[in-house]
Amino acid sequence: MGKDTIITIGRQCGSGGREIGIALAKELNIPYYDKELLKRAAKESGLCEEVFEKFDERPTSSLLYSIVMDPYSLGISANGIDMPINHKVFLAAFDTIKQIANEGPCVMIGRCADYALSDYNNVVNFFLHAPIEERAKRVSARMNLTQDKAKDFVNKTDKQRASYYNYYTTKKWGATSSYNFCLDTHVLGIDGTVTLMKTIVEKI
């Protein structure tokens, strides 16, 4: 794989995923995509950026589930059928993830990128986790919340991410079988996680 590797990162809230993703991309000298992915998807789809923010990694439900699960095999695009806006947002992001991957190596955070790129043979999928107490501490400091409120925020965010991932993919969010590597950022530390991830990417 080497220099052409695309890295996707799934993460529990407060596990340090964003900080780690940015640092890893810098270490490997490749682009990093988080909210930037949404901005690009909005621009290329013609949908407003605020819509992408509203539906970003949030669960939904619809009878069009089967269409969204495998739109390409049915020959249906987001613009080719009258579907709910949240599904259009997902499909636009799905397309953008593939376009970015086609441009070269990069780091992508969340948004089912591992599933979107499941047919690519140059992708390494990581999932970052840590004990709830430690994640709540990080969120508490970052958002100036009490420990209890931070824990509530972490649990709510994780529930949303899990529902979104489990709904739009054929895998289970956070399950070891859904990723190539699952790393405990509390045990490894932020710097240690970045170093290990870089080593893995460079050796496979």
Strand order in space, largest sheet: 2-3-1-4-5
Shape: globular
User: In which range does the helix fraction lie?
Assistant: 40-55%
In DSSP terms (H or I, runs of 4 or more residues), the helix count works out at: 10
Number of strands: 5
How would you classify the helix and strand content by structural class? alpha/beta
Level-2 CATH architecture:
3-Layer(aba) Sandwich
Uncertain stretches: 62-78
- Residue fraction in strands: 5-15%
Average pLDDT rating = 86
At the fourth CATH level, what is the homologous superfamily? P-loop containing nucleotide triphosphate hydrolases
- How many angstroms does the end-to-end distance come to? 6 Å
Please tell me how large the radius of gyration is: 17 Å
Question: Short description, anyone?
Answer:
With 204 residues, the chain is of the alpha/beta class.
Polypeptide structure, described:
This protein has 204 residues and is of the alpha/beta class. It has a single domain (2-199), classed as P-loop containing nucleotide triphosphate hydrolases (Rossmann fold, 3-Layer(aba) Sandwich). 54% of the residues lie in helices and 11% in strands. A 5-stranded parallel β-sheet has the order 2-3-1-4-5, sandwiched between helices. Helix 2 (35-45) packs across helix 5. The termini are close together.
